[in-house]
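User: Can you help me understand a structure? I only have the sequence.
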Amino acid sequence: MKALRPAEWRELPVPRLTMALHRLAFALSDRNPYKGKVRADHKIGWHYDANVAQSLIFQGKILPSNIKVNPKSNTIMQWGFKIENNTISQVEGSMADLIWVATMSLAQAAKPVLFFVEPGDNGYKLLDGSHRLMRADLDGKAEVDAYLVSEQDSSLFLRQD
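Assistant: Let's start by predicting it. Here is the structure, written out as tokens:
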């Protein structure tokens, strides 16, 4: 998909017919059963639920830390998302929706990304916001706002499959 790197945020050049067909296909398709779920590496048959985490944050039951993350390092590592010669691409087998990345609204693109710490992991894992990270990378941002949920609080949104 060809894309111009904008100096300021604006709709990227995606043909209207492509956007219309994409939205129609999305509306008619079954919901992705894995959306909002991150497999637990330490517990087979379990996952972390992004919707539950967001609800707990909204209710004030989880107080995440505010952090800044580099979108490029996260998008390459997670999705094989690249921008080369004004072309965006992803590795084979990646299921990221590049049309959504290129057409998401400013309000959606500005929402903080959500990370969490899993028991036994030395770093943090992405829970919600992969497309926003890709958009930030596409827009040339060096860092984005994110929330980080502690290892202790991550157990509150751990669910059995």
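Now, to help you interpret it: Residues 16-160 form one domain. The chain has a mean pLDDT of 83. Let me know which part you'd like to focus on.
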